[in-house]
Design a protein that fits this description.
Number of helices: 14
Shape: globular
Pfam families: Aldedh
Bound molecules: NADPH dihydro-nicotinamide-adenine-dinucleotide phosphate, 2-oxoglutaric acid
Distance between the termini: 72 Å
Keywords: NAD, Oxidoreductase
Oligomer: single chain
Number of strands: 23
Family: Belongs to the aldehyde dehydrogenase family.
Strand content: 15-25%
CATH class of the largest domain: Alpha Beta
EC number: 1.2.1.3
CATH superfamily of the largest domain: Aldehyde Dehydrogenase, Chain A, domain 1
CATH topology of the largest domain: Aldehyde Dehydrogenase, Chain A, domain 1
Structural class: alpha/beta
GO molecular function, one term: aldehyde dehydrogenase (NAD+) activity
């Protein structure tokens, strides 16, 4: 057992909220309370937004070097402390220690990347259509942003939303996900330690009511949200109704096509990584394995064999390969979809049974379901757990049609040795990100991230695209 943390809101540079009715349990061992949490409401949101508004003029007018230095220092601190913070992340969220440390390092790299971007923000200088007139465009900070973040990447996602917001001179209020506020607090604390002025970054811990209060707040200029499609649609409606900026990253039902000409071992490794690692709790996870007839049976057999050897266990056990689900609700969702698939005629090749380990936790057996068709619920709705299904196809065209045939379009992958099919897939897959001979999950931090259809809404996140959401463009005309 490890000590229970006492969490706080961060408002105007101070830790507030001595009353802590909330408890966050360790998904690997539910006897352990990881953190006691205050539960904020509209009063805390009002105070946090007021602090962010008051801090905006000085922060937005500070030299970009000041902003860059803070992000760079915070990034270094995160990298130095990746083991301690990664351990906390794994205790709180349930991903394996290697995944927790890796995600913490990724957050550190994100901060360092945006430290550079703070200095590179640029406009354009154009000839006017009128003689003797010059036209310039500038990017300027927008104001106060509300960031509503999910539990599945409890440090990387707050980092990739907060870092560009801060780099370009905005101020921020974060609402971390209910299950993972301790990891988010570690990020907020490190940014303050790195020299962030008070009020520039605030955090209110609480449930959906805190997110809703940010969406509705008249002094919040923009909202960036990652989470479920249902909640995201409400966030967009609320923000658009009062003409605030809004950006949504939501679900996926990501396809991985395996063609007959694929290298079998490679295809199996790619499916294993994309569908099951991080307990399948990634919006980019491959949940539909669309496999051509000639390789289908060999692929299923080889993947099932590998799945049988995967060690499911407590996140901090170094031999664990798949940690628990984040919550009882997520665990139950996985098992519910296994039942749904079974009822639809799917065949459970491996997994699907409840797991009982030595430590009481929310464990899910990695599950592979075969003999499914594209129109089944298991192939249309997001499960968000270590559950994938195969769909047998005859041709590449049929595979592509099925891959494109859902309401989502985040990431899409193909395993093939055919350059012709790979290039065609890159062009015709209706997804924001395409992967050739790579897992659908696991992306770089310095390039745009986002999807099509119901997966995303608004400007892209991350990389150079982040400036489109976190700045607005002013056009200036000057006559000589
Ligand atoms: N795209 C992605 O990366 C993610 C997708 N999901 C999908 O969503 C499903 C459910 O996960 P869940 O955590 O419930 O996702 P939610 O969409 O409920 O939560 C995402 C964030 O929104 C907050 N929130 C909840 N209600 C509101 C509201 N009315 N207004 C504003 N903010 C709100 C949540 O707070 P709180 O946690 O306190 O409720 C959390 O911070 C998963 O099974 C998965 O399918 C989930 C996480 C990430
Ligand atoms: O696949 C990744 O690296 C990122 C996934 C992600 O952003 C998510 O699941 O929310």
């Amino acid at each position: 057992m490890t000590d229970t943390l006492e969490l706080s809101h961060w408002i105007d540079g101070e830790k507030v909220g001595a009353d802590r009715p909330g408890e966050g349990l360790n998904p690997s061992d539910t006897r352990e309370v990881v953190a006691r949490q205050p539960q904020g409401g509209s009063a805390e949101v009002d105070a946090a937004v007021a602090a962010a508004r008051a801090a905006f003029p000085a922060w937005s007018e500070a030299s970009p070097e000041v902003r860059s230095d803070v992000l760079d220092r915070a990034g270094m601190l995160l990298l130095e402390r990746r083991e301690a913070i990664g351990t906390l992340l794994s205790r709180e969220e349930g991903k394996t220690l290697a995944e927790g440390i890796g995600e913490t390092a990724r957050a550190g790299r994100i901060l360092k990347y945006f430290a550079g971007e703070a200095l590179r923000l640029h406009g354009q200088n154009l000839a006017s259509v009128r003689p003797g007139v010059e036209v310039q465009t500038y990017r300027q900070a927008v104001g106060v942003f509300g960031l509503i973040t999910p539990w599945n990447f409890p440090i990387a996602i707050p980092a990739w939303k907060a870092a560009p917001a801060l780099a370009f001179g905005n101020t921020v209020v974060i609402k971390p996900a209910g299950p993972t506020p301790a990891t988010a607090e570690a990020l907020v604390a490190i940014l303050h330690e790195a020299g962030l002025p008070k009020g520039v970054l605030n955090m209110v811990i609480g449930r959906g009511n805190v997110g809703q209060a940010l969406v509705d707040h008249p002094d919040v200029d923009g909202v960036s949200f990652t989470g479920s499609q249902g909640v995201g649609a409400g966030v967009a409606a609320g923000a658009v109704a009062r003409q605030a900026r809004v950006q949504l990253e939501m679900g996926g039902k990501n396809p991985l096509i395996v063609l007959d000409d694929a290298d079998l071992d490679r295809a199996v490794q790619i499916a294993l990584d994309g569908s099951y690692f991080a307990t399948g709790q990634r919006c980019t996870a491959s949940s539909r394995l669309i496999v051509q007839d000639g390789i289908h049976d060999r692929f299923v057999e080889a993947l099932a064999e590998r799945l049988g050897t995967l060690k499911v266990g407590p996140a901090l056990d170094p031999t664990t390969q798949v940690g628990p689900a984040v919550s009882e609700a997520q665990m139950e969702t996985s098992y519910r979809y296994v039942d749904i698939a079974r009822g639809e005629g799917g065949r459970i090749v491996t997994g699907g049974e409840r797991l009982s380990l030595e430590t009481p936790g929310w464990y899910v057996q990695p599950t592979l379901i075969c003999d499914t068709s594209a129109d089944m619920r298991i192939n249309a709705e997001e499960v968000f757990g270590p559950v994938a299904s195969t769909i047998r196809v005859r041709t590449y065209e049929e595979a592509l049609q099925i891959a494109n045939g859902t309401e989502f379009g985040l990431s899409a992958g193909i395993v093939t040795s055919s350059l012709k099919h790979a290039r065609d897939f890159q062009r015709r897959a209706r997804a924001g990100m395409t992967m050739v001979n790579l897992p659908t999950a696991g992306v770089d931090y310095h390039v745009p991230f986002g999807g099509t259809k119901k997966s995303s809404y608004g400007a892209r996140e991350q990389g150079f695209a982040a400036a489109d959401f976190f700045t607005w463009t002013k056009t200036s005309y000057t006559a000589s």
